[in-house]
Every structure is written in C-alpha cells, then in structure tokens.
Amino acid sequence: MSNPLRDSLDALVETLVASMVALVLDGTLADVAAAGPVGAAAEAAPVRRGRPARTARDTDAIVRRIAAHPGTTGEDARKALGLEKNRWSTCLRIALDAGRVRRVGEGRSTRYWAA
C-alpha cells in the first residue's frame, strides 16, 4: 500500500539532492564554500570560551610582577600572585607569545624577565 505523503516527501528529497549535486558539479568547491552556511548554521552565534577579561587582567599582573622582580622563577611569581597553576600557564603563555616576557632556562631553573 502506497502512502501519498511519503511518496511526496521522497520526490521532494530526490529533487533537492539532484539540485545540490548539480550545483556542486557545475560550480567549483570555492564557489560552494563562498556561499557560506545557510539556515540555523548561519544564524548561530559563535561560542565564546574562557574569561577574556580575567585572563587579560591576570596576564597584566604577571607582566607587572616579573617587571618588578626581574629574574624571578615561575613558582615564586605564581605564589606571590596567588594564581592556580593552570591559570598561570595560560596567562604566561599569552605574555610570552606577545613578547611581553622572555624566558631563560629550562624546567625548575627557568627565570623570567620583562621584555
């Protein structure tokens, strides 16, 4: 027994798929990518992670501490600022990548200076 609604939906899906295949075959991949997302994907807000204001504040505090105490160890600076190890690592990496701090040494003998 045939279901008219099901048959109608199947026909529409086949037409849609055929149109999409024709679009991809007729255009280049760059053309398809340039069209961008449509529907809900286009309207979705980007996901923000972390706490940018807090990270910036902590990074500035690290740079100020290192500038005030040149040659300090990471452990001493972290304890003086009261930062957790993961927060220290994240903010220190940002400062190092931005060129605000320079590192000399390896492991526990690492010392930091303001750039």
What's the topology here?
Elements: H1 4-26, H2 29-35, H3 40-43, H4 52-68, E1 72-73, H5 74-81, H6 85-97, E2 101-104, E3 111-114
Antiparallel strand pairs: 1-3, 2-3
Notable features of this structure?
115 residues; mainly alpha; Arc Repressor Mutant, subunit A; 3-stranded antiparallel β-sheet; 6 helices; 3 strands; 63% helix; elongated
Can you describe what's shown?
This protein has six helices and three strands, in the order H-H-H-H-E-H-H-E-E. The chain has 115 residues and is mainly alpha-helical. It has two domains: 4-43, no CATH class; 52-114, Arc Repressor Mutant, subunit A (Orthogonal Bundle), CATH 1.10.10.10. The radius of gyration is 28 Å and the shape is elongated. The mean pLDDT is 83.
Give the CATH architecture of the largest domain: Orthogonal Bundle
Overall, the morphology is elongated
Order of helices and strands: HHHHEHHEE
Give Rg in angstroms: 28 Å
